[in-house]
Amino acid sequence: MKDESSKTTRVVIVDDHPMLRERLALLIEKEPGMVVSGEADNVQQGLDLIESQWPDIAIVDLTLKGSSGLELIKDLKARAIPTPVLVLSMHDESLYAERALRAGALGYITKQAASEEVLAAIHRVLSGNVYLSRDFTEKIVNQMAGAGLPAEYSPLHLLADRELEVFRLIGLGQTTREIATALGLGLKTVDTYRERIKQKLNLKNAAELYRKATCWVQEQG
After folding, report:
1. CATH number of the domain within which 131 lies
2. Is the CB of residue 152 less than 8 Å from the CB of residue 94?
3. Which of 55, 126, 181, 208 is a Cys-bridge partner for 10, taking CB atoms 3.0 to 4.6 Å apart?
4. Which residue, 141, 175, 203, sits at the end of a domain?
């Protein structure tokens, strides 16, 4: 019988930045018994890779070529692929962590975290437990114990996942046609999302939408 302690842990990285993938792979492969078994930079490639390998864990960015990592996580859940997902993202944890968990991820950590914290998050998710930063966990507990909205509440919390993705692409300066192509949507569908975003954020016109989206993207870095 094979000793479980000698089992190799296979990790797939889905991120659209080659340098980040390289650095993350070096970090992971320094861990005893861990190997990076594959890399991808977009949703379809990541889905195909994970579906063919069924790795022990997938580390997924939210900003991928062509679409959001949230869509990848939802697709994995819909296909009942048991690979646990840890999101490693530059995006604001207070806005995206809950969305990632709802989509099916087991953990969320920002790219600003130290290497030791990233490894701790990987091990926690591998053990079947949820990983969130201590600060964010405390915020959730305080919010549940108290009343009203959290101090850092943003109207962007009102946006559905796809609306938030459209909002981000608007902030990057993409046109309706470019957004439609990137997300695989029709032009009318994108226009519908734009109208919903304006209503939810109480924006009067396209100019206000563009300004708010651009400022938000700049704040996100």
Report:
1. 3.40.50.2300
2. yes
3. 55
4. 141
Domain boundary among 89, 115, 141: 141
pLDDT of residue 22: 96
Instruction: Based on the fold, state whether residues 199 and 91 are members of the same structural domain.
Output: no
Whole-structure pTM value:
0.80
**DSSP character for 15?**
-
| Domains in the chain, number | 2
Same domain, yes or no: 101 and 210: no
Lowest mean pLDDT, pick from 41-45, 106-110, 145-149, 154-158: 145-149
For 26, 165, 167, the CA distances from 200, given in Å and listed in that order, are 43, 15, 12
What is the separation of C-alpha 169 from the centre of its chain, rounded to a whole number of angstroms? 15
Condensed to tens digits (0 to 9), the pLDDT of residues 92-139 reads: 788 889 899 999 999 999 999 999 999 999 999 999 999 998 877 776
- For residues 116 and 199, state if they share a domain: no
Radius of gyration of the chain (CA): 18
Residue from 83, 84, 87 nearest 64 by CA: 87
